[in-house]
Design brief:
The termini are far apart. This protein has 18 helices and no strands. Helix 1 packs across helix 17 (383-400) and helix 3 packs antiparallel against helix 13. It is an all-alpha fold. The protein has a single domain, classed as Amino acid/polyamine transporter I.
Length: 449
């Protein structure tokens, strides 16, 4: 975690810089799939647009499902700790209660996203302030309160080889640890999807992408370091027999206050701060989802397109908002049948989304290498180099995140990421060959500039 975050952050910034350059040239709500269409030329444009668009929108739905489901799980842990913890007879909600929490959270997010854009703008600014202030408070407070602190040697050199997953190789553990960082550093394409509702979009869109990544790298690394100095016994934090039922970060917060003050109330309050931050994250995710669904259906790419690209009197694509919330809820329903199935579904959130990020960048450095017209924000002569590094990084993480995360490999421990992402690829390409190639012509030009 400690080294993986800045490494993943650096390469994510490379991806973001390439996306920002393209966004400056094409500031539209369609974002990635519109870029792919324009950068691929007349012949390849429709297929490139179709492929990018479906990877992008399904990846976004998976992100929303995973973010809001993780909040539902955190609420369950807060209730557990507030009622005495697992070892004190606390109430542990069933998976059915957790899915009800998830549905309720999505419902609230859909309502908030049905409000005029001025309200969303206010909540967005509040979310930014809450995240930054909250992170600084927690990264200082938790290590300060904890009576047992880790040494610098532990924080910067220790690998948890006693993990019960049959993985003892330090390099392999480090590679798997990149997943957390890369999963967290997603969603910055939201700035592109909001450009049609943004002033000076050809500069502010790119600024949004880069600043989102840059601030996350710096502040997030500080948070990780602060938390890691409060960690001493990793196997216990991951044990299902601790007070938080194996929810590691909750146990860190709870034990830090319990060890000093005799109770973990302060830790529960800190978890509340985190839950509000996740709530805002899910809200913004639904915003991005709905704008992508609106733009994609505006170009006729989705079933019942005429329904999803309608806007209300406040110019909010309200049908697309509720569609996004509903599909994200349906994705989380897989958790009731199988944790493995849910994890496979959520894996699309990272790999699927990054493939959608990489496709327009790939087209920019290949098919459009000589024809790309940069906007006000551009990388100059370094654009091609930065683009290739971004594409290669996505290729590398796509392989790394398909590796097994537990041994021995059984049907319950197999990493189903290749199955989920491969299934999405097969469905997308098949639908193109069978049907879409006959009628989908790519983004519809509404206004000639």
């Amino acid at each position: 975690m400690v080294y993986g975050w800045p490494i993943a952050g650096f390469f994510t910034l490379i991806v973001g810089l390439s996306m920002a350059e393209i966004c400056s040239s094409f500031p539209t709500s369609g974002g990635l799939y519109y870029w792919s269409a324009k950068l691929s030329g007349y012949y390849w444009g429709p297929f490139a647009s179709w492929l990018t668009g479906w990877f992008n929108i399904v990846g976004q739905w998976a992100v929303t499902a995973s973010v809001d489901y993780s909040l539902a799980q955190l609420i369950q842990v807060i209730i557990l700790l507030s009622t005495g913890g697992k070892n004190g007879g606390g109430y542990e909600a069933s998976k059915y209660i957790v899915i009800c929490f998830h549905g309720g959270i999505l419902f609230i997010h859909a309502i908030l996203n049905s409000l005029p854009i001025t309200f969303l703008s206010f909540f967005g600014q509040l979310a930014a302030a809450w995240n930054i202030v909250g992170v600084f408070v927690l990264m200082i407070l938790i290590p300060t309160v904890a009576t047992e602190k880790a040494s610098a040697k532990f924080v910067f050199t220790n690998f948890n080889t006693d993990n019960g997953d049959g993985i003892n190789n330090k390099v392999y553990i480090f590679v798997l640890g990149l997943l957390m960082s890369q999963y967290t550093l997603t969603g910055y394409d939201a700035s592109a999807h909001m450009t049609e509702e943004t002033k000076n979009a050809d500069m502010n869109g790119p600024k949004g992408i880069i600043s989102a990544i840059g601030i996350s790298i710096v502040v997030g690394w500080g948070y990780i370091l602060g938390m890691t100095f409060a960690v001493t016994n990793i196997p216990y934090l991951l044990s299902g027999d601790n007070d938080a039922g194996g929810y590691a970060i909750a146990e860190v917060f709870y034990q830090a206050f319990k060890s000093r003050y005799g109770n973990g109330v302060g830790g529960i309050i800190c978890l509340g701060v985190v839950s509000v931050a996740i709530f805002f994250c899910g809200m913004s995710s639904v915003t991005s989802n709905s704008r992508m669904a609106y733009a994609f259906s505006r170009d006729g790419a989705m079933p019942f397109s005429s329904l999803w690209h309608k806007v209300n009197k406040h110019e909010v694509p309200i049908n697309a908002v509720w569609l996004s919330a509903f599909i994200s809820f349906c994705m989380a329903l897989t958790s009731l049948g199988s944790t493995v199935a849910f994890q496979a579904m959520v894996s699309i959130a990272t790999i699927g989304l990054y493939i959608a990020y990489a496709l327009p960048i790939l087209f920019r450095v290949t098919l459009a290498r000589k024809t790309f017209v940069p906007g006000p924000f551009n990388l100059g002569r370094y654009g091609i180099l930065v683009g290739w590094v971004a594409v290669l990084w996505v290729a590398v993480i796509s392989v790394l995140f398909s590796l097994p995360v537990e041994y021995p490999i059984t049907k319950d421990t197999l990493n189903y990421t290749p199955v989920a992402v491969g299934g999405l690829l097969i469905l997308t390409v098949s639908s193109w060959i069978i049907s879409a190639r006959h009628w989908f012509k790519g983004p519809i030009t509404n206004v000639e500039i």
